[in-house]
Here is the input.
Amino acid sequence: MATITNHMPTAELQALDAAHHVHPFSTQADLEKSGVRVITGAKGVWLTDSEGSEILDAMAGLWCVNIGYGRDELADVAARQMRELPYYNTFFMTSHVPVIALSAKLAELAPGDLNHTFFASSGSEANDTNLRLVRTYWGEKGKPSKQVIISRWNAYHGSSVGSASLGGMKGMHAQGGLPIPGIHYINQPDWWSEGGDMSPEDFGLARAQELEQAIIDLGEDNVAAFIAEPIQGAGGVIIPPETYWPEIQRICDKYEILLIADEVICGFGRTGSWFGSQTVGIRPDIMTIAKGLSSGYQPIGGSILSDEVAAVIGATEFNHGYTYSGHPVASAVALENLRILEEEKIVDTLRDDTGPYLKAKFEEMAEHPMVGEAKIIGAMGSLALTPDKGARAKFAADAGTVGYMVRERCFANNLVMRHVGDRMIISPPLTITKGEIDTLIARAWQSLDEGMANVK
Ligand code: PLP
Here is the structure.
């Protein structure tokens, strides 16, 4: 077989890819019909493809490249660590310097008494850890009946059996016999789509109080934890009304329910604070982390535990771990990523300077005739597409048809935006400049105009 390189014609790469590569969340027919876009390089917020196009990545990959692409420091650290100690495990009373340093750094950055990290290689693995961990926690506390975990419809917590069950995506549950038993779902706080005649404030309270009702119905002695993202990402960047999270916190406190904040997207600056929990003002017992922890340069995730949860779990042998828990190269790269985020004041700049600029420009898109709602927090924003703004109406076409078409227009205009149904999402690298924000907004407007011209 000929060596496969960046210099091969795109069509040949596409054909090989379609023939041999099974893609997540894709159909074979689409792969064969359209052919994949082959990304060959990246710098800052810009991707280069095999045709030489320069594409503005307004999704930071999959919401993860927080410091932007092409930072040599991370490559250097990885190479150094691979030479020094490419692998060792953290099972059976062993450790190594990169994971010790990363754990200590996370304890410094995480709010409250979240001082202890259990590592995994992804957000899915970390949420699987949480599932076993909270149930084990209550067993150790002498309350073994507390086993049910409450989540939300349309939540995304990963793709493994456990984490997809924790998630509330019906399309995922429909495949592979999910969800596993012991997970209960309440509705999401999506006022624009589901709020009807209620004010956002009343709706936020009502949706939070569904948690209280579920605890009462299930019996508080049977409920272990509530899991949620501070801001739902893959569900469509659902920014809840301000009444929502304080009420959720009150309910978790009242009924002794562990609060798991899934910070896989929101963590490491995405919402303009280090963690989304700080942005929405909650005190989780456990935070799930991944993505921005290493800016996607290495696969690493984890669960950060409060002092109390860690003490209870540490009192027994938790029979759980992954070969790559606390992988030295991934840990060293994550630590370097955190150094860059901190020393270059990337989170502060987003909060105080580029974030407000992005917010102003992004919210102006609500003036587009096809945009019903333009909401953004930090560098995580969503446009709800509608045929009738006043009525908050949905397109008659199958949900997602218009969104998909606008996403294709974005691609054609060298802009990566994602669609979730008929919502258009952005989540760019946190390092995006004001000039790049202008380009992003101009290309998004153009794509919406072109999309609108195609809507019948
Ligand atoms: N949790 C949230 C909130 C996510 O957005 C994701 C991935 O998008 C996950 C968990 C799963 O993370 P991973 O894809 O690293 O397994």
